[in-house]
Every structure is written in C-alpha cells, then in structure tokens.
Request: fold
Amino acid sequence: MVLHPAARTPRDLSGDGTRRSGEARLDEAVGLARAIELDVVRAEIARVARPVPSTLLGSGTVKRLGETIAEDGIGLVIVDATLSPVQQRNLERAWKAKVIDRTGLILEIFGARARTHEGRLQVELAALSYQRSRLVRSWTHLERQRGGFGFLGGPGESQLEIDRRLIGERIAKLRRELEEVKRTRSLHREARRRVPYPVVALVGYTNAGKSTLFNRLTRSSVGAQDMLFATLDPTMRRLDLPSGRKAILSDTVGFISDLPTHLVAAFRATLEEVTEADLVVHVRDAHHPDSAAQREDVLAVLADLGAHAVNAEREAEGQGLIEALNKIDLLDAGERAILANQAARNAEVVALSAATGEGCDLLLERLDRRLDADTHAIRLDIPLSDGKTLAWIYAHGEVVGRRDDNDAAHLSVRLSEANLSRLRHRQRPH
Reply:
C-alpha cells in the first residue's frame, strides 16, 4: 500500500513548501514504489487534521487502514512523508506490516540502482546515516551492566550500543573512502581542464527526460527509461556543436522533492560535477502537471550546492542556466504554441522533444552561442618551438591574426573564458 498523508488545510505534510496536489504527490510515490518493482495493491490519500506525534495519522485512520491492510494481505506500507522512528514502530505494531517512509523508499531505490563503486559508497553512507537515527531501544534486557574503556564494548554493552558503535565506525570509514573519491574526481576535473573542452551538465527532476536528451545530443545509448531514478551514476560523453567546437556533456542523477538530507550530503561529490560545469541545462518535463513546482525543487537543490549557474548575480546579468522544456510532443497544439512563444521571447528557454528530436538543433545552437559569448580577444606570443601549444590554440580558438619572427609566433586570438583558463594552466610551469 502507498499512502500519502495530506493536511486538510492547503499546507502539505510533505514539508517541501511547494503547492503540489495530493493526487500528484500520490502518483509520484506510486511511481517510486514501482521503480523497484513493488506490486502496488492500493494507493490512497489519508487526510490529516493535525499530525499525531505517536502515529502521524489519527487513531480512526490507523484503525481503518489496519483493517484494509489485513483484508488485502498487504505486507509493506509506504508512507509518503517523513516518519519519526517512534511513529514507524507504532504503525508497524498497529498494522502488523513493514512500514517505510519516503526517505526509506528513496534509499531502497538508490541501493538497487547504484552501479559504480562510488555510487554504492554514497548510497551505503546515506542508508547508514538514516538507519542510525532509526535505532530504537528495544533490547532493555541487555542493559549495560559494566562498561569497558569507551573504545571497546564492555561485557555489559547493550545490543543497541553495539549497533550504534558499529554503524558509527562504518560511517567514518565510508566518509574516508568518499573523501578519496572526491580527491580523485578533483584530479579528473583538473585533467579535463588540460583537455580544452567546456563541460555542459544536464540537471532536472527525476524522469524529466535527461538521459533521453543526453542520448539524442551525443548519439549514445545510455540507459533511459520512463522510470524515476533511472540514472544514478553520472555519465560523460563528447558533444559536437554546430560551430565545430567540442564540449563534454554530463548526465546527472535526477532531483526530487523532499530529497533526504542524507542523500544530498552523500551525493555531494557527484553533484559537484554540476557546480564545476561551464554551463548548466535544466531539463524540465513540460507535460507534467507539477512542472513549475519541480522547477523550484531543482533550483533549491542547486542553490544548496552553491552551483554558480543559479547565482543571483549571474541571473541578473542574464547568465543563468538554460531551460530545456522537454516532452512537447505530448502537449496539445495550444500548449505547444504557448511554449513556442515563451521560447521565442527568452534566449534562456528552448522547447523541445528529446524523443522525436524536435528543437534539439536549436538547443545545440543556444549552447554554442552561450559558450561563444564569453570569448576574449587576446594577443599571445608563443615560442615557435612550442608546436603543441600552437596546435592547441588553432584547435580551440579563433586565430584572427599572426606574425612570426625568428623566435615566436605573435597571435591575435579569440578564446572562451574556459579555454583561456585552460591555456594558462598549460603554460604554468609543472
């Protein structure tokens, strides 16, 4: 059973502060459950006048749902909200079924989807951080009789304390391993700066169509399914732009409302790819009824990460992220006309369909133009003996003038901001 607790007042119990309908939230929760192949027998909205500290739901609702659960032989109840450990335990006792909340469900999906070593580390760290908060004192017969030295469990150490200590040790080890991953990723980014390609990152709400667009633009075959969180591990491919310049396109994990703080923290190393990108494309599902609320969720996570693309100053200068309004093939003619007008008035918006390819050429042109907008005209003196650097400049800049003497080539070149910093890096003594 999937259950979405909704307040009787307009405020949503989910706590994400957005104006979503209860029906849309319930549909999303059912989609999350089906993403890990759970058989959803029943799904309903439970109206709550006032959250009850012990069970969240009122006693009448708990009793009524308990009868339905027993009648339908339901073994798992997903509550689409954040449950305290006590609420979770009390509902399990009342319903005689396993109960997990929204955070637990998302962690299950991430655990099932993580493929890379880094992804598994991040998921395990998030799961253990969550699990540690769930440890409830239930081994009172094993109360501590006599302690050890603090770093060793004494003979009377309770099971609860052993579990907490073991989880704490494992969390510390995972954090050390992820720091190493973060350092390696930083080195990879440093190496990419020497390879003079700007990085374009795709971000968006889960199931907005990022992977389909990624495949369309790069002619790749990255797994893309009509499923929440189909992509967990970031993927990068070369992107050929209309001007002939190259870029690197990065496909990232989808965002979601009420993204558990454990997950935001655990996936920070991966999401840092977004903050380091030269350009960010926000892929939105224009067909989804909650598209506007999903947009706010994505921008909130980006702001939390400190992504430069949503920096207020850049927004004021018109240098914010590019919005790709996807799935226009699913809209009726009137809705498509409205989006087309919106895109025509705003250079930061492109209406497209990753499935059919409509509008994708326009997106590539916008990316090309944006990456070209930050070009600088500079004069360079390069020793004629440094053939590699000269070749690099010709490959990645626009040489508008050249005069050679016996020692050096004196060039007038147009270079992007990103390539200018890469050139400086190449010329820095190692």
